[in-house]
Amino acid sequence: MSRVWLFDLDDTLHNASQRAFPELNASMTSYIETHLGLTTEEAVALRHGYFNRYGATLTGLQRHHGVKAAHFLHETHLLPGLDPHLHGHAQDLAALRRLPGRKFLMTNAPRAYAKRVLAAIGLTGVFEGMVCVEDMSCFRESRPKPDARMFRIVLARLRLRPEQCVLVEDTLIHQKSARSLGMATVWMQRWLRKAADGRRLHHRPAYVSRRVRSLSALARAPKF
């Protein structure tokens, strides 16, 4: 059976926590302040609340405030001057290129941002296809990772069976959902060593097939 790899983007292929995520968080907070008329503190609380509840701030804004996805994604991901600060790990990127099997990018980020990041870290053309947040919807509503129904729809669209696929991610809740459908999961920890509350991430949950600190390690032993 040919292995199919579904790679996350931020904090999996590059160090998003260093620069991209702080800028994105500030941009989303500013958007919410401007378009919903909230204070900074209220906007931050709303952003966190929707992310924790739905897995993406956009989903909550769509459901409860009628925000248009295309406008939100465009406005919040402009991030001028970000590209020179994007970087991956050279050995990891080389290992990804030689990893056997089909490779897809699967990210909750918009397509324009994903292409921009891949270009900046030298991975343009490496993936057979990209599944971005614009592709993750049900009934005209954004349903990004970890939505299990979205996973099923995307796999059917790509004509893939769950048992063929390996989701490589830094985010545990996404892996839990993927594992429940029969996918193998890899917890990537090169860039993210702590949870949002500051706890060290040592324990490997039962739904994680493998935990790695580099893509090089994955390439050395890609079997499960």
Automatic annotation (TrEMBL):
Pfam families: Hydrolase
Gene3D superfamilies in the cross-refs: 1.10.150.450, HAD superfamily/HAD-like (3.40.50.1000)
InterPro entries: HAD-like_sf, HAD-SF_hydro_IA, HAD_sf, Pyr-5-nucltdase
SUPFAM superfamilies: HAD-like
NCBIfam families per the UniProt record, alphabetical: HAD-SF-IA-v3, Pyr-5-nucltdase
Name of protein: Pyrimidine 5'-nucleotidase
